[in-house]
Structures are given as structure tokens and as C-alpha cells.
Amino acid sequence: MEQSLSYDNRIDSESSDQVVNPWEVSAKDGGKIDYDKLIDRFGCKRLDESLIDRVERLTGRQPHKFLRRGVFFAHRDFNEILDAYESGERFYLYTGRGPSSEALHLGHLIPFMFTKYLQEAFKVPLVIQLTDDEKFMWKNLTVEESERLARENARDIIACGFDVTKTFIFSDFDHVGGAFYKNMVKVSKCVTLNKAKGIFGFSGEDHIGKLSFPAVQAAPSFPSSFPHLFPGMDKLRCLIPCAIDQDPYFRMTRDVAPRLGYSKPALIESSFFPALQAKNGKMSASDPNSAIYVTDTAKDIKNKINKAKSGGHQFSVVQHDLGADLEKDIPFKYLSVFLEDDSELELIRKQYGEKEGIMQTGDVKKRVTEILTEIVERHRRARAAVTDEMVEAFMAVRPLPSMFE
Amino acid sequence: MGFSKDQLLDRLQELEIDYSKYEHPPVLTVEEQAKYVSSSEGALSKNLFLKDKKHRYYIVSAMVDTKVDMKVLSQRLGLGKGGIRMAPEEALGELLQVSLGCVTPFAVVNESARDVSLLLDQKFKNQTRCIFHPLSNDVSVSLNMLGLDKFLKSIGRDPVYVDLEANPVVGKDQAPDLAVYVPSNSVVVPEVSNKTSTIQNPPPKSVSADVKPVASAKPSKPAGKVKSIADNSAPSAYKNPEKFVEEIMDKTSALLLSETKGESVEALTETLRKRLTSDFTHLAIMYKNTAYAEGFYAGTRHQPKRL
To answer: Residues B69-98: pLDDT tens digits?
Structure first.
């Protein structure tokens, strides 16, 4: 039974632990995020081997590396989605981005890369919400600037390779209204001020815009919010790939759903992509050296990786004796996220991380730089091909007749 | 672009720093400023923006009557006798994002100024209040130095106070006492100040209403589209069937040539499949999206059939 809404995820939690919520992510005492504790506290479940095997069976293809390597590691009701899929029922995907800056880094791309795989593997449609209103409310931006950032970010998202015949991208400022707004209000009616304070840590000092935002992020979980896409499909299930810090929004949504007669959205959640200097939390758009940006040149990437925190030892003899500390080694962590080939990863793990290994930190850094450069290059080329018309097409309110093909 | 004076003043208020604000016509010199802001409000400051030969930058903020000897300062910083001079005007705009006559300790709030070293006159500490421009030379603010310290700490800077009139011996056995304040990074300021080009770094703060970089202003239906259908600079492998096939053939042949190691044809085809599938799928998706977008464009602008 899922943990009912005992909101002990407050921002100022008693145990002054790690902090994970939509606006802040930091580990305890500058250490690592304890994901087991997080899963426990949030009340979601680990994505285990059996689920991953099931995905492989149902989709007839190798599961995405983010699943194999545990980047996406937690879920709510993913097994039910698979059950439904197996019995011929479909579902749709919902993910989003808060366009707070033009500078996207690799950490931002991870949920989109994974969502694209889900779209291809399960052949299902996708809605992508750009929360320009949220960023306007929380950050020092004008409305025009947040709208502009939303469109710019849309280009990067499209460059990840989503299929326009199955994808609807929308910005809140453009789209809120009509059926979408009706669901928003229905959700709002079910959440008291006290509950919202408990979940999100709002206080008497916060402006009322913030209070009503969670409903905006909840609404896309319900198919009736998109009558142009899912007419008459009120029972269609929704799967939300996101980073685990978004969990509070959807805990609230799942609590509200049955009261509105809707199915609860399922979630599949990722851990945070470590910052290059591995300080305490995740890559941050406000610290350029903590991340690899999609606009970085090959040289930038090389420099950043070279400066990254390594688990290698200073002297090669020590390295030879002990092997690198893979727990601390950021380049190796990046490899484990982005290197396609499992066997190559295993080889590097042995040769670098174990005693008498023959690999040095420099070798690992070189390989990572190669891979990340390839990814960034490919992204740049794809982004250059995204025209204004293409963005318009993705964001147009139109039916998607072949969305399940 | 840079922090605006309003953003700065808001930030001071957020930090609960007490200050008084005086508005006046724009002033370029301390003498002019003194006409509008009387000394009873606080001690006026003179602010120098300096540069050394290795392209490192410094803001020296001092009491008006403090004598700042550039030669001595240069030696104390470990830069030799003539190592420091006034920074050029372009650097003012590029790094501090302020105009002429507006150098101020507050300028370090900008990301672009992160490598600029800030040296404050020790004599400020004896004053109840001191006066600086809040990023604009038509306003002066007076505040206690503790307030400035709090502000600096809030942006991750440690306030540095220096006895600017001291003239310690610097030599073989006496290390330059201010050398520790030399920035570790030098900064390259472009020769021509190109205000129209956009950000070189991810913009830390948003655009305030008055300044908008030209290249990025893009209303939803732009008159001059940046990337429109007629624009041929988009990779045509996504638009043109022949280029599409050429891209596929090129990549496949290249891989074939590099991977053939005398292994069986089956093994080779497996390798090809593994290595190329994802790339080609991506290529195909972009091709499809481009075609759809062109169709959509045509569809939304088509003339209905005349009945």
C-alpha cells in the first residue's frame, strides 16, 4: 500500500537530512544522495530486474541503457502500466521542463532521451509541458522572457528526436484554458492550503501564484485535459518519466485522481546526474563548471572532464595496487550513464576499478570525452535542423491520428 | 544582460540591508557627485577599475582623500613597478556591465565580473556610512560597510579591506603583501565591444525590461524568420531524399571499411546493425519531422477550394 500523504518531506525536515524537492536538491553534509532513504521516505518502489526483463519481453528490444544501469531506478505503478500494455491497453507519456535558462546541460537531456526511448519502444503518444508560468513565478524573469525560453528549450527537446506525429508540446501561458483549466480547478478543489503547505513548504510569505501552480503540473496527467488528443478516452492511463525531485507534485496528483474519477498516473523516476566536481547534489544550470552544456565545444568538454573529480590515485603504482575508487570517480559515472556497450563498460570497470588494473584515469577521461562530444555534436546538428515551422507544428493543437502506431 | 540598479536595490532589500538612496542627474566624477550628495549623508568614494599586463582586473574603491599610488599598489600586488594601469572602456562594459563614471563595488554582482578582484579602503571601516553608485550613475546609495559586507558575502565574496596608503617594503625577503588578492584567472575582453552579440555564458539573471540582446528577441510570428523553410542552411539530409540516402551510404561504407577485420560477414553485419541503428533512426525521425512541418506549414496557409 502506497504511503498515504504523510507529508514528511518538508523542506526543513527535522532530521536536517538531505533535501530533495522540486526547488532544491542537496545531500547531507556534502555527501552523496541516499536514494534508498529517499525511496523509503517518498514511498515509491525500486525498479527491479524483473520489471526490466518484462520491459524487454514486451517491447521486443533491449531495454534502454538508463534502465540497465539504474539511472531510472524508482517507480510508482509501472507494473500496472505493463499489465495494461500486455492486455492490449495503451497509455500515453507525460513529461515536462521548466524553462529557466537557455543553457541546457546533459542532465536536462536525460529524461528526454529516456522518454524518446519509451515513445519508440511502446509506440505511444507524448505530451510535453513547458512550465513557463512556473519559471516566471519563481524566478526573476519577465513573461516574455519565460515564453521565449520555453520556445528555445522546445528546440532542444525536439532535437532529442521525438516523433511529431505522436508528440504534443505546449507552454502553459499558451495552453492553459478550456478542458485543461477545468481539470486544474478540479484538482485545486481537492487540495487544502494546509496540505499544499505540507507538501511544498509554502508559507504565508509566498505569493498565491505559487500555491496554484501544482494544479498546473497535475492537469496533464489526465487525458481529459487534452480533448483534441484523447477524445472519449477518459480511462487512458498516463506514465510520467521524471527526475525524482518531482515526486511531490505527483504524489499530490495521485491522491486527488480517484476523487475525480480518474486513474492515478504512474511514474518512472531517475536519480540525479552528478555534478562534475561531485559536490553535493546535481548538475546545476547556475554553475557552468558543474555541467556539460549542449553548446560546449569539444575543447570545453575535454577541459571540463579533465578537471572533473576522479577516483583515481595520484600515483600510478597506488592505482595499480588498489584500482580507482569508482564510487567517487565522476568520469566513470558518466561512462556508466552514456556508454552504450555493456561489455565495454564492464571491461573498463575491471581494468580501472580493480586491483592490478591497467587503465589510468586519463584513459577513462579520454573515452568519456569522446562519447560526450559525440552526443553533444549530434544534438547540435539536430537542433540546427529544427525550424520555426517545426516548433509550430509540434506545438499546434491538432489531432494525432497515428499516435499509437 | 547585467544586473540593473533596480535588481540590485531589490536584492539589498531582500537581504535587509539598510541604505539610503539619492537620485540626481548622471554624474561622471566625484566632484559632480559631491554637488548632489552632501558629505553628511556619508563618505564619498572614488572607484578605480584597473588591469594588469596579464589581463587580470581589479576594482579599487577608496575614500576620496586616500592617496592611491599606482606604482606602490602594483608592487604590493607583486606585479612589479609599472604593472597596473586603468582598464580600457570596453572592459568596463564587458566585465562590470556599467557605464563610464560608474565603477562601484556592487559591480561584482555580475557573473561577468567573477574574476575581478575587489579591494576596499580600510578607512571605510571608520565611517558610519559610505556612498557608492548602485550600478547606475544617476543614483547614489549610502550604507554602512557592514551592509556592503553582507551583500558581498551573499554573492560568495569575502570582503577585502586594505590599507591603501601603506607603503611596505617589497623585496627578496618581504613578499608583496597584496599578491594574494591577484585573481587566479585572466579575462579576455573582445577588442570591439559588440553589444549586439549575445551571451558567452549562460545568462545568470534575466533580461530586465529595458535591455534585450538583439539576436535573441523572437516574437512568436517573427517578420524575418531565423530558420524558415526557405532557408537552405539546415542540414539537407533531413529534407532531401538523395542527401538522406547519401548520408546513410556514407556512414555505412565508412564503418564497413574501418571495421572489416577479416571476420565473417555475419559478424560484420551485426556490428553494423548495432552501431548504426540508433544514428539512422534519429536521422529518419528528423526527416519525418521536417516533412511533417513543411506539410503543416502548407496546410495552415492553404486557400480553401473555391466551390
So the answer is: 888 888 888 888 778 888 888 888 888 888
